[in-house]
Amino acid sequence: MDYKIKSRIWVEHKDGMFLGEGRIQLLKAIKSEGSLSKAAASLSMSYKKAWNLMDSMNKSAKEPLVVASTGGKGGGGAAITAYGEKMITAFENINKSCWEFLDSEFKKLEL
Amino acid sequence: MDYKIKSRIWVEHKDGMFLGEGRIQLLKAIKSEGSLSKAAASLSMSYKKAWNLMDSMNKSAKEPLVVASTGGKGGGGAAITAYGEKMITAFENINKSCWEFLDSEFKKLEL
DNA sequence: ACTCGTTATTTCTTTGTAAATATAACGATA
DNA sequence: TATCGTTATATTTACAAAGAAATAACGAGT
Protein backbone atom coordinates (compact mmCIF):
# COMPACT_ATOMS: atom_id res chain seq x y z
CA MET A 1 0.00 0.00 0.00
CA ASP A 2 1.60 3.21 -1.16
CA TYR A 3 -1.20 5.51 -0.07
CA LYS A 4 -0.88 8.07 2.67
CA ILE A 5 -3.62 9.73 4.66
CA LYS A 6 -3.37 13.46 5.27
CA SER A 7 -5.41 15.94 7.22
CA ARG A 8 -5.85 19.58 7.97
CA ILE A 9 -7.57 20.92 11.04
CA TRP A 10 -8.74 24.39 11.86
CA VAL A 11 -10.86 26.23 14.39
CA GLU A 12 -13.85 28.35 13.41
CA HIS A 13 -16.03 30.73 15.33
CA LYS A 14 -19.35 32.27 14.35
CA ASP A 15 -18.58 33.60 10.90
CA GLY A 16 -15.28 32.29 9.70
CA MET A 17 -11.83 31.03 10.37
CA PHE A 18 -10.09 31.61 13.66
CA LEU A 19 -7.02 29.40 13.70
CA GLY A 20 -5.42 27.24 11.05
CA GLU A 21 -2.04 25.86 10.16
CA GLY A 22 -0.92 28.97 8.30
CA ARG A 23 -1.93 31.20 11.17
CA ILE A 24 -0.08 29.06 13.69
CA GLN A 25 3.00 29.17 11.50
CA LEU A 26 2.75 32.94 11.44
CA LEU A 27 2.36 33.16 15.21
CA LYS A 28 5.50 31.09 15.65
CA ALA A 29 7.41 33.24 13.18
CA ILE A 30 6.32 36.42 14.97
CA LYS A 31 7.52 34.91 18.21
CA SER A 32 10.95 34.09 16.85
CA GLU A 33 11.38 37.26 14.77
CA GLY A 34 9.83 39.86 17.05
CA SER A 35 8.35 41.70 14.09
CA LEU A 36 5.48 41.17 11.70
CA SER A 37 7.39 42.21 8.61
CA LYS A 38 10.32 39.94 9.41
CA ALA A 39 7.97 37.08 10.22
CA ALA A 40 6.27 37.52 6.85
CA ALA A 41 9.60 37.58 5.06
CA SER A 42 10.78 34.46 6.85
CA LEU A 43 7.70 32.65 5.55
CA SER A 44 8.00 34.14 2.04
CA MET A 45 4.61 35.71 2.64
CA SER A 46 3.63 39.25 1.71
CA TYR A 47 3.44 41.70 4.58
CA LYS A 48 -0.15 42.43 3.69
CA LYS A 49 -1.21 38.82 3.89
CA ALA A 50 0.51 38.44 7.25
CA TRP A 51 -1.15 41.58 8.54
CA ASN A 52 -4.56 40.39 7.37
CA LEU A 53 -4.11 37.06 9.13
CA MET A 54 -2.99 38.72 12.33
CA ASP A 55 -5.81 41.21 12.23
CA SER A 56 -8.38 38.50 11.63
CA MET A 57 -7.05 36.43 14.52
CA ASN A 58 -7.01 39.30 16.96
CA LYS A 59 -10.48 40.45 16.00
CA SER A 60 -12.12 37.07 16.36
CA ALA A 61 -10.43 36.08 19.61
CA LYS A 62 -11.61 36.99 23.10
CA GLU A 63 -8.17 38.32 23.86
CA PRO A 64 -5.54 39.35 21.32
CA LEU A 65 -2.95 36.77 20.32
CA VAL A 66 -0.49 39.35 19.07
CA VAL A 67 0.32 42.85 20.26
CA ALA A 68 2.00 45.18 17.81
CA SER A 69 3.54 48.54 18.50
CA THR A 70 4.33 51.16 15.93
CA GLY A 71 7.04 53.78 16.06
CA GLY A 72 9.61 54.19 18.77
CA LYS A 73 13.00 52.58 19.15
CA GLY A 74 13.63 50.19 16.29
CA GLY A 75 10.45 51.31 14.58
CA GLY A 76 8.17 49.05 16.54
CA GLY A 77 7.54 45.33 16.60
CA ALA A 78 5.12 42.56 17.35
CA ALA A 79 4.95 39.98 20.09
CA ILE A 80 2.85 36.98 21.09
CA THR A 81 0.68 37.22 24.19
CA ALA A 82 0.38 34.50 26.80
CA TYR A 83 -3.00 33.69 25.29
CA GLY A 84 -1.35 33.37 21.90
CA GLU A 85 1.25 30.98 23.27
CA LYS A 86 -1.48 28.87 24.77
CA MET A 87 -3.19 28.67 21.40
CA ILE A 88 -0.02 27.61 19.63
CA THR A 89 0.65 24.70 21.93
CA ALA A 90 -3.00 23.65 22.07
CA PHE A 91 -3.28 23.62 18.30
CA GLU A 92 -0.04 21.79 17.72
CA ASN A 93 -0.84 19.15 20.31
CA ILE A 94 -4.25 18.37 18.93
CA ASN A 95 -2.91 18.40 15.37
CA LYS A 96 -0.20 15.93 16.20
CA SER A 97 -2.57 13.59 17.99
CA CYS A 98 -4.93 13.78 15.03
CA TRP A 99 -2.18 12.65 12.67
CA GLU A 100 -1.32 9.76 14.93
CA PHE A 101 -4.94 8.76 15.22
CA LEU A 102 -5.45 8.84 11.45
CA ASP A 103 -2.28 6.92 10.71
CA SER A 104 -3.24 4.13 13.04
CA GLU A 105 -6.80 3.98 11.72
CA PHE A 106 -5.61 3.99 8.15
CA LYS A 107 -3.17 1.19 8.73
CA LYS A 108 -6.02 -1.02 9.93
CA LEU A 109 -7.78 -0.75 6.60
CA GLU A 110 -5.40 -2.60 4.30
CA LEU A 111 -6.61 -1.07 1.07
CA MET B 1 -16.77 28.45 24.20
CA ASP B 2 -18.21 29.23 20.82
CA TYR B 3 -15.35 27.76 18.82
CA LYS B 4 -15.66 24.68 16.67
CA ILE B 5 -12.94 22.42 15.40
CA LYS B 6 -13.12 21.28 11.80
CA SER B 7 -11.08 18.93 9.68
CA ARG B 8 -10.56 17.64 6.21
CA ILE B 9 -8.90 14.38 5.38
CA TRP B 10 -7.68 13.02 2.09
CA VAL B 11 -5.58 10.21 0.69
CA GLU B 12 -2.56 10.81 -1.47
CA HIS B 13 -0.36 8.53 -3.51
CA LYS B 14 3.01 9.20 -5.09
CA ASP B 15 2.35 12.45 -6.92
CA GLY B 16 -0.93 13.90 -5.86
CA MET B 17 -4.42 13.48 -4.59
CA PHE B 18 -6.24 10.19 -4.76
CA LEU B 19 -9.36 10.52 -2.62
CA GLY B 20 -10.93 13.50 -0.89
CA GLU B 21 -14.31 14.63 0.30
CA GLY B 22 -15.34 16.06 -3.06
CA ARG B 23 -14.36 12.89 -4.85
CA ILE B 24 -16.30 10.73 -2.44
CA GLN B 25 -19.32 12.93 -2.90
CA LEU B 26 -18.99 12.48 -6.64
CA LEU B 27 -18.72 8.72 -6.36
CA LYS B 28 -21.89 8.61 -4.31
CA ALA B 29 -23.70 10.81 -6.82
CA ILE B 30 -22.60 8.60 -9.70
CA LYS B 31 -23.90 5.62 -7.81
CA SER B 32 -27.31 7.15 -7.26
CA GLU B 33 -27.64 8.80 -10.68
CA GLY B 34 -26.09 6.17 -12.93
CA SER B 35 -24.50 8.83 -15.10
CA LEU B 36 -21.59 11.20 -14.81
CA SER B 37 -23.41 14.17 -16.30
CA LYS B 38 -26.40 13.73 -14.01
CA ALA B 39 -24.12 13.26 -11.02
CA ALA B 40 -22.33 16.50 -11.84
CA ALA B 41 -25.63 18.35 -12.21
CA SER B 42 -26.91 17.00 -8.91
CA LEU B 43 -23.83 18.46 -7.21
CA SER B 44 -24.00 21.75 -9.15
CA MET B 45 -20.60 20.89 -10.54
CA SER B 46 -19.54 21.34 -14.14
CA TYR B 47 -19.36 18.17 -16.20
CA LYS B 48 -15.75 18.88 -16.95
CA LYS B 49 -14.75 19.09 -13.33
CA ALA B 50 -16.58 15.87 -12.57
CA TRP B 51 -14.89 14.15 -15.47
CA ASN B 52 -11.47 15.38 -14.37
CA LEU B 53 -12.03 14.08 -10.85
CA MET B 54 -13.21 10.72 -12.11
CA ASP B 55 -10.34 10.41 -14.54
CA SER B 56 -7.80 11.30 -11.88
CA MET B 57 -9.22 8.75 -9.47
CA ASN B 58 -9.27 5.96 -11.99
CA LYS B 59 -5.77 6.69 -13.19
CA SER B 60 -4.19 6.73 -9.77
CA ALA B 61 -5.97 3.69 -8.35
CA LYS B 62 -4.86 0.10 -8.75
CA GLU B 63 -8.31 -0.76 -10.05
CA PRO B 64 -10.84 1.67 -11.48
CA LEU B 65 -13.47 3.05 -9.12
CA VAL B 66 -15.84 4.00 -11.91
CA VAL B 67 -16.60 2.39 -15.24
CA ALA B 68 -18.15 4.58 -17.92
CA SER B 69 -19.64 3.49 -21.21
CA THR B 70 -20.29 5.73 -24.14
CA GLY B 71 -22.96 5.34 -26.81
CA GLY B 72 -25.56 2.64 -26.95
CA LYS B 73 -28.98 2.49 -25.34
CA GLY B 74 -29.64 5.64 -23.39
CA GLY B 75 -26.41 7.15 -24.64
CA GLY B 76 -24.22 5.45 -22.10
CA GLY B 77 -23.66 5.86 -18.37
CA ALA B 78 -21.32 5.42 -15.46
CA ALA B 79 -21.27 3.03 -12.52
CA ILE B 80 -19.27 2.39 -9.37
CA THR B 81 -17.18 -0.76 -9.13
CA ALA B 82 -17.00 -2.97 -6.07
CA TYR B 83 -13.60 -1.45 -5.37
CA GLY B 84 -15.17 1.99 -5.54
CA GLU B 85 -17.85 1.00 -3.07
CA LYS B 86 -15.18 -0.25 -0.70
CA MET B 87 -13.39 3.10 -0.92
CA ILE B 88 -16.54 5.05 -0.19
CA THR B 89 -17.32 3.20 3.00
CA ALA B 90 -13.69 3.13 4.16
CA PHE B 91 -13.33 6.86 3.67
CA GLU B 92 -16.58 7.77 5.32
CA ASN B 93 -15.89 5.58 8.32
CA ILE B 94 -12.47 7.00 8.98
CA ASN B 95 -13.70 10.54 8.40
CA LYS B 96 -16.50 10.14 10.90
CA SER B 97 -14.22 8.67 13.53
CA CYS B 98 -11.78 11.52 12.96
CA TRP B 99 -14.50 14.08 13.66
CA GLU B 100 -15.48 12.29 16.84
CA PHE B 101 -11.88 12.09 17.94
CA LEU B 102 -11.29 15.79 17.34
CA ASP B 103 -14.48 16.88 19.04
CA SER B 104 -13.64 14.96 22.17
CA GLU B 105 -10.04 16.21 22.21
CA PHE B 106 -11.15 19.77 21.64
CA LYS B 107 -13.67 19.65 24.44
CA LYS B 108 -10.90 18.72 26.87
CA LEU B 109 -9.06 21.95 26.17
CA GLU B 110 -11.44 24.56 27.56
CA LEU B 111 -10.10 27.48 25.62
C1' DA C 1 12.70 69.01 14.18
C1' DC C 2 14.77 64.94 12.03
C1' DT C 3 15.84 60.06 11.49
C1' DC C 4 14.76 55.32 11.53
C1' DG C 5 12.45 50.83 10.81
C1' DT C 6 8.38 49.29 11.72
C1' DT C 7 3.11 49.00 11.52
C1' DA C 8 -1.07 50.25 8.90
C1' DT C 9 -3.78 50.92 4.59
C1' DT C 10 -5.05 51.82 -0.17
C1' DT C 11 -4.79 50.99 -4.96
C1' DC C 12 -3.43 48.60 -8.91
C1' DT C 13 -1.79 44.57 -11.33
C1' DT C 14 -1.15 39.88 -12.04
C1' DT C 15 -2.08 35.19 -12.07
C1' DG C 16 -4.13 30.83 -11.33
C1' DT C 17 -8.40 28.46 -11.11
C1' DA C 18 -13.04 27.66 -12.10
C1' DA C 19 -16.77 28.11 -15.22
C1' DA C 20 -18.95 28.46 -19.71
C1' DT C 21 -19.02 27.14 -24.53
C1' DA C 22 -18.50 24.33 -28.41
C1' DT C 23 -17.78 20.10 -30.67
C1' DA C 24 -16.37 15.40 -31.59
C1' DA C 25 -17.00 10.43 -30.65
C1' DC C 26 -19.56 6.60 -29.37
C1' DG C 27 -22.70 2.52 -30.18
C1' DA C 28 -27.37 0.25 -29.42
C1' DT C 29 -31.71 0.79 -31.49
C1' DA C 30 -35.02 1.44 -35.02
C1' DT D 1 -27.91 5.14 -41.78
C1' DA D 2 -30.25 8.58 -38.79
C1' DT D 3 -31.28 9.38 -33.98
C1' DC D 4 -30.40 9.84 -29.21
C1' DG D 5 -28.21 10.99 -24.70
C1' DT D 6 -24.24 10.21 -23.02
C1' DT D 7 -18.96 10.37 -22.56
C1' DA D 8 -14.74 12.77 -24.03
C1' DT D 9 -11.90 16.91 -25.08
C1' DA D 10 -10.31 21.50 -26.49
C1' DT D 11 -10.87 26.37 -26.40
C1' DT D 12 -12.27 30.51 -24.58
C1' DT D 13 -14.10 33.58 -20.92
C1' DA D 14 -14.76 35.30 -16.35
C1' DC D 15 -13.62 35.96 -11.78
C1' DA D 16 -11.65 35.83 -7.42
C1' DA D 17 -7.67 35.41 -4.74
C1' DA D 18 -2.94 36.64 -4.30
C1' DG D 19 0.76 39.78 -4.99
C1' DA D 20 3.21 44.22 -5.87
C1' DA D 21 3.79 48.84 -5.14
C1' DA D 22 3.18 53.05 -3.05
C1' DT D 23 2.25 55.89 0.92
C1' DA D 24 0.83 57.40 5.45
C1' DA D 25 1.41 57.06 10.44
C1' DC D 26 3.83 56.22 14.48
C1' DG D 27 6.98 57.46 18.49
C1' DA D 28 11.54 56.81 21.03
C1' DG D 29 16.00 58.63 20.45
C1' DT D 30 19.30 62.01 18.83
Task: Describe the overall structure.
2 copies of one chain form a homodimer. By secondary structure, chain A is an alpha+beta fold. Chain A is 56% helix and 22% strand. Chain A has helices spanning 21-33, 36-42, 47-60, 82-109; strands at residues 4-13, 16-19, 66-70, 76-80. Chain A starts with a strand and ends with a helix. The first copy, chain A, has one domain (18-109): Orthogonal Bundle (Arc Repressor Mutant, subunit A), CATH 1.10.10.10. In chain A, helix 1 (21-33) packs across helix 2 (36-42) and helix 2 (36-42) crosses helix 3 (47-60). In chain A, a hairpin with a 5-residue loop joins strand 3 and strand 4 (76-80). Chain A binds chain B through residues 2-14, 18, 86-87, 90, 94, 97-98, 101-102, 105-106, 109, 111, and chain B through 2-14, 18, 86-87, 90, 94, 97-98, 101-102, 105-106, 109, 111. Strand 1 of chain A pairs antiparallel with strand 1 of chain B, so a sheet runs across the interface. Chain A binds a DNA duplex (30 and 30 nucleotides) through helix 2, helix 3, strand 3 and strand 4. Chains A, B: InterPro entries: LysR_HTH_N, Molybdate_resp_trans_reg, WH-like_DNA-bd_sf, WH_DNA-bd_sf. Chains A, B: Residues 24-85 form the HTH lysR-type domain. Chains A, B: This is LysR family transcriptional regulator.
